[in-house]
Amino acid sequence: MAPPKLNQTLRASRDGYDLHAEVSAPQSDSAPWLVFGNSLVTDLGIWDAQAQALAGPFGVLRYDQAGHGKSGLAERAINFDDLGADLLAVMDAAQIKTAIYIGLSMGVPTGLSAHRRAPDRFTALVFSDGQAKTAPGGAAGWAERIADAQTSGMDSFAAQTADRWLTSASGADMKSRLTQMIAATRFEGFQACATALMDYDYAGELAHISCPTLLIAGAEDGAMPQGMATKLQPAIKGAQMEIIPQAGHVPCFEQPEAFTKVLSGFLDQFTGDAAR
């Protein structure tokens, strides 16, 4: 099988469902690959700005996590062991042996799960606005959100979520684009992954990470910056931490230039300054 070409769409087969991915091959066969994992109720489009900026010096693979975007969903309950296996399956489908993984929110435990299964597949990790385990009381909060989305519908849920995720300074167009992305997520996909978020724990994996790791958080994402700085950073040897000003839960989307600048600075160690 030939390696993926520029802007190729591919599908990775799983047990009873397929995962949708988009791939841009690098300019050089020796260039590193970046693999991006989306948050809950978003799709691979949440990474549009980063993919556009970094494609070329890097290979870029973005995919929709199970039940999101154009990806299918298992008919059984899923957990983050499944979602981590999904990530590795997408990499296999694209013939990517090793990659730098960048995960947003739900994409953090997805990446930790995949790392626990196959640490040699990852040359670096970037975790944005996510946690290694369910927060105390988190299960009840997710149960409430699932019930709200089921009762009110995804359109109403999307509007509320976009308001919560973005800062008050974000413009109407940005809020509209995020609301539409969230609303396009089918309820079953949200329910399945939100249920997985109710009970996960990969905190023990943090001490096993030996590759370069960057932690990023939106400055206005509630307690997230402090939580990442006090729980994730000390547990991962050599981890760096960066805060994106004027950003909430999705800084890659709300402050794409600032986020990409921070990400590019971290990636310089893999390609020199070609990624800037």
Descriptive overview:
This protein is of the alpha/beta class. It has one domain: Rossmann fold (3-Layer(aba) Sandwich), CATH 3.40.50.1820. The chain has ten helices and eight strands. It has an eight-stranded mixed beta sheet, sandwiched between helices. A hairpin with a 4-residue loop joins β1 and β2 (18-24). The longest helix has 16 residues, at 256-271. The two termini are 32 Å apart. The mean pLDDT is 95.
Task: Compute the CA-based radius of gyration.
Answer: 17 Å
Query: CATH topology, anyone?
Result: Rossmann fold
Number of helices: 10
Mass-distribution shape: globular
CATH class category label: Alpha Beta
Termini, distance in Å? 32 Å
List the strand order in the largest sheet: 1-2-4-3-5-6-7-8
Total discrete domains: 1
Number of strands: 8
Query: Helix/strand-derived class?
Result: alpha/beta
The CATH homologous superfamily is called Alpha/Beta hydrolase fold, catalytic domain
* Helix and strand sequence: EEEHEHEHEHHHHEHEHH
State the major sheet. 8 strands, mixed
Tell me the helix content: 40-55%
Low-confidence parts, pLDDT < 50 over ≥5 residues?
none
User: Roughly what is the average pLDDT, rounded to an integer?
Assistant: 95
Strand content: 15-25%
Tell me the quaternary state. single chain
Q: What would you say the CATH architecture is?
A: 3-Layer(aba) Sandwich
